[in-house]
Amino acid sequence: MRSWGVALLLVLGQAGVAGAHSHEKGDIQVRHPWSRATPPGAMVAVGYMEIRNTGAQPDRLIAASTPVAKSVEMHVTQREGEVMKMRQVKDFEIPARERITLRPGGSHLMLVGLERPLKKGERITMRLRFEHAGELQVEVEVQDIGARKPHH
């Protein structure tokens, strides 16, 4: 009986950790929001995450903001010939019953006009505004300066 109690505590503990990296509103779920630490004097940072739409209708991420930057822009990275180019877009569509992943080398949120450097280990708040789901506040975990994926 004692081993069942220990096993249950371990499972519940792991569920709590997973829950800390997931935020939901309506049909939208944001998983593992993260960024990278920035060097002193940097004026931009990035935001990455997975956005899932469990609903029957598409939704759009139409705006984002954070108190640590003057603005947040949505960017895509595309190959043009031999060169990778980044360009700003007005929104990110999240198709019904699908997900999009914002990640290094691809689509991402650009935090422009940083108020201060981002430090590894801190969490910053970010408000995401969706066309249908409305506003969702998430905690973005700041990873190492050279991180390529979230480490939880």
Describe the structure.
The chain has 152 residues and is mostly beta strands. It has one domain (22-143): PCu(A)C copper chaperone (Immunoglobulin-like, Sandwich). The protein is built from 1 helix and 11 strands. The protein has one helix at residues 2-19; strands at 22-25, 28-36, 44-53, 59-65, 69-80, 83-89, 92-94, 98-102, 108-114, 123-130, 134-143. β10 and β11 (134-143) form a beta hairpin. It is globular, with a radius of gyration of 17 Å. The protein starts with a helix and ends in a 9-residue tail after the last strand. The model is unreliable at 1-20 (pLDDT under 50).
CATH architecture: Sandwich
**Mind summarizing the main beta sheet?**
11 strands, mixed
Give the number of DSSP strands.
11
**Radius of gyration of CA atoms, rounded to a whole number:** 17 Å
Please describe the topology of this protein.
Blueprint: H1 2-19, E1 22-25, E2 28-36, E3 44-53, E4 59-65, E5 69-80, E6 83-89, E7 92-94, E8 98-102, E9 108-114, E10 123-130, E11 134-143
Parallel strand pairs: 2-11
Antiparallel strand pairs: 1-2, 2-3, 3-8, 3-9, 4-7, 4-10, 5-6, 5-9, 10-11
